[in-house]
Amino acid sequence: MYVRHLQVTDFRSWAHADVAFEPGPSVLVGANGQGKTNLVEALGYVATLGSHRVATDAPLVRHGASRAIVRTAVVNAGRELLVELEVTPGRSNRARVNRAPVPRPRDVLGILRTVLFAPEDLALVRGDPGERRGFLDELLVLRAPRFAGVRGDYERVLKQRSALLKSAGVARRAGRRGGEGTGEAGDIRTLDVWDGHLARHGAELLAARLDLVADLAPHVGAAYAGVAPESRPASIAYRSSLGGALPEGYGQPGGPRADVATLEAALLDELGRVRPQELERGVCLVGPHRDELDLVLGEAPAKGYASHGESWSFALALRLGSFELLRADGAEPVLVLDDVFAELDRRRRRSLAGVALGAEQVLVTAAVPEDVPEELVGARYEVRDGEVRRV
Amino acid sequence: MYEGPVQDLIDELGRLPGIGPKSAQRIAFHLLAAEPADVTRLQEVLQRVKEGVRFCDVCGNVSEEERCRICRDARRDPTVVCVVEEPKDVLAVERTREFKGRYHVLGGALDPLSGVGPDQLRIRELLARIGSEDVREVILATDPNTEGEATATYLVRMLRDFPGLSVTRLASGLPMGGDLEFADELTLGRALSGRRAV
Ligand SMILES: Nc1ncnc2c1ncn2[C@@H]1O[C@H](COP(=O)(O)OP(=O)(O)O)[C@@H](O)[C@H]1O
Ligand SMILES: [Mg+2]
Ligand SMILES: [Zn+2]
């Protein structure tokens, strides 16, 4: 697939921008702060309904404007779809496909698939587990958009159950001190209900993540070997809060596919086991929100042990591995490389350029053209003073 | 901040569901500029609903009398009770013209984030009703979202102990994550006629 056209209004620094693209490589060149990343961020937003830089929508709207609009024409297997998103912070976004409103913005997921590699990705290696869970879930949604709903449902149940654990814990402690402990019985009865729902939605999310990691792991290993052949081999592994209760082989390449019903039963068991601690602490201790994607170099965890160069290579390998996986699925995504060549040495540049050249479309941003490997300089755009000009 | 009563009005309006600070301000200034007669009419209607409208003793729906129109209607089948979250859901189900039984309005759904547990809902009243009236089927028509589903699951557990009672849930097909009242008549009607035992 490729992006044929991008138009933004009041998005980030852009009052208005209008850019036509072609398949193959395109490079956006401009000094720092001219708005290159803002443009590819808009594309990323259409693909994931989120930004790779900020967690909320407010910074995406131009200062002084009340809403941002992103319009993009995407060509997939010869068929063109026009996606329009109106982003209004604090309210639900509105979306249209081919000028017809869709019930929920979520309905545009899957029309544009992007894999975006950016300097922020170093956090995939060095950041909290939440970064890596977010990475997996985003890829999951790119693979199958319905997981946006699964994840949304899980998060809602998790919030409700956590609130209940807190109030039940408070009531319990008050009761122990000789008070009435009002509401505790009701809380506990409904806790069973929330356990059941958490296990159901959690199992669906967990199974999908396990299968994803099993499929992704070989691609990441190969991508890492490609960008850093001199380094120790890289591998990834899913670590579940189920611990030893996770069936053997789940999440491993060549292992059995994860069975949702089995995982639901395991989660329910585990929830029963840890309930006293959960009530004590008022937090939900079991479920995919507590899981981790382990990144391993040789025998050692990458986090805390990898050098700066190795961390970069690992982050890159996670993105290139994602790209190859989506491709293997038969869903060729648009590859976006935001300001990353300057950070890489010659070998890594070459290797990245090699993968990028095979993509149906690759969009590159750079401060100076010299940063971009020659073979990737296809269509060139100059970004300056609030304008994008094809040169 | 505006002076005295104007700000009070904005604050009060802002506490209404679905009205943010900007809308509250807009409505307040609209009222300030409105004809006194218009404002008086609004004032009277507000007063009348608070004084004249109450909740049905049996089903919890809004009513002008002790028992609502539906509970008084002898043609409605008392053996089938449709459980909904809010009075507006009664209207939504009525619009389908598919349902000839009676209702029970819970007054919300399980929602720990807002401090709503079973004791804050009209669940005890529902159990009492089933124990004393000749109810043979309970249709769980809570919203197809997280809170509504949890409430339905909870009710299934509570209703298990009534011998011979059949408990059903609306068929899937309702837009998930939604609100019953937003489902169109056709979809809701189909969900109702395709209900399954749970
Ligand atoms: N919401 C916003 N409103 C106005 N300007 C913004 C907004 N968000 C970011 N900017 C501006 O955008 C510029 C950064 O754009 P960016 O795309 O990151 O630049 P680069 O070309 O280096 O990738 C900064 O000057 C920043 O002030
Ligand atoms: Mg940039
Ligand atoms: Zn009634």
Protein architecture, described:
- Chain B: InterPro entries: DNA_Rcmb_RecR (IPR000093), Hlx-hairpin-Hlx_DNA-bd_motif (IPR003583), Rcmb_RecR (IPR023627), Rcmb_RecR_Znf (IPR015967), TOPRIM_dom (IPR006171), TOPRIM_RecR (IPR034137).
- Chain B: May play a role in DNA repair. It seems to be involved in an RecBC-independent recombinational process of DNA repair. It may act with RecF and RecO.
- The complex is a heterodimer of chains A (391) and B (198).
- Chain A is built from 8 helices and 15 strands.
- Chain A is α/β, with parallel strands linked by helices and 391 residues long.
- Chain A has a domain of 173 residues: P-loop containing nucleotide triphosphate hydrolases (Rossmann fold), CATH 3.40.50.
- In chain A, strands 2-1-4-5-6-7 form a 6-stranded antiparallel β-sheet, with helices on one face. Chain A has a 6-stranded mixed β-sheet with strand order 8-12-13-3-14-15, sandwiched between helices. A 3-stranded antiparallel β-sheet of chain A has the order 9-10-11.
- The longest helix of chain A is centred in the middle third of the chain and has 44 residues.
- The two termini of chain A are 24 Å apart.
- About 1% of the residues of chain A have low confidence.
- Chain B is α/β, with parallel strands linked by helices.
- In chain B, the strands form 2 sheets. A 5-stranded mixed β-sheet of chain B has the order 4-3-5-6-7. Chain B has a two-stranded antiparallel ribbon with strand order 1-2.
- In chain B, strand 3, helix 5 and strand 4 form a beta-alpha-beta unit.
- Chain B is elongated and about 65 Å long.
- At the A-B interface, helix 4 and helix 5 of A face helix 7 of B.
